Amino acid sequence: MHQAASAPGIVIKCDLLGALRVKQKDPDGEALRNDRYVSEEDAPDEPVAADHVPEDLRREIEQFFLSSVLGIGKAIKFKGWQNADEARRAIKKGNESLCCRLMKPPLNPSP
What we know:
Blueprint: E1 14-25, E2 31-33, E3 36-41, H1 55-68, E4 75-83, H2 84-103
Antiparallel strand pairs: 1-2, 1-3, 1-4
């Protein structure tokens, strides 16, 4: 979260605050996890606790994501919040899983 406008692909140094665990159901009925990671830029105008997302900000973020799927056929359910350490572990686990999948040869290699 930061107050300035930015373009896609810009890297902004930030601190991880936590994650909102989300289960999403697409219009075709496919369910998947689609967690949202919340971070704060290093030099905030209004400092936030460095290891969690404050309750009032949690509600605001939840409302934003609920609003973002209105009228597009997707449904989301919130599965709870993770603090910064839990979110960091989830990111690491996801990175390790992705690396393992990328390292495996395809099941049916083409000749």
